[in-house]
Amino acid sequence: MTKNDSKRNKPDDNLSPDHDVSNNELARMISNQGKTTQGQIDQLGKDLRDELKQGLGEIKQELNDVRANLNRIKLDVHDNTDAIARAKLANDLIISGVPFTTGEDLYGCYRSWCAVLGYTVNAVPAVDIRRLTRQPLRDGNNCLILLQFAITNQRNDFFGRYLGSRSLTLRQAGFQSDGRVFVNENLTPAARRIKAKAIDLKKEGKLSNVYSRSGVVHVKTAESDETFPIKAEQELLEFRR
């Protein structure tokens, strides 16, 4: 065998078992690295999703807090506005159930009712009294009468005496009728709407009593001795259940 033949018959180093093991190991390393990289990518994706979810949750909570604050501010503004409106009516009372008559003497009627409530002639509270209408009236029309007292304490005293007796009638003021005369607070438009809806609930049996105190409508249920002040119409919804 010649020297050249010996070289030709020498095993190829690239086909050695040791080199085959290295290739397999390299393949495993590449595979493991791929798995590790994929795991890192998956973990990174999970971390990003978790952070995004947490961030969205925090933003949602902040929005809820802002919404709640706005609602509180809205309620505060409503309460303040309503309180101002009630203050303007603090000296007023409304009389109902008195039919109009041509040439009527409303102040004379008022003095007669004051006598029934225990006032002496010289102690009758000073008031401005008039019908609440701008339209011409015909005999028999039941139009509300507005009493505007000069002093708030006198208004409160008159109303307290009425509530203590509830005994005013038309006959006491010279009418040929024993029909009752009613005295109520002069409510704001918003409070009147609330009271009207509350009275409807009372007719449905949902409420046992409806009244106003210091211009605020209060309601009571048959199941409880507690009274509830109602400052917004939506607050009546819970009594419809």
Automatic annotation (TrEMBL):
This protein's UniProt keywords: Coiled coil
Annotated region (Disordered), positions in chain: 1-25
Coiled coil regions in record: 49-76
Biased composition (Basic and acidic residues): 1-22
Protein name listed in UniProt: Uncharacterized protein
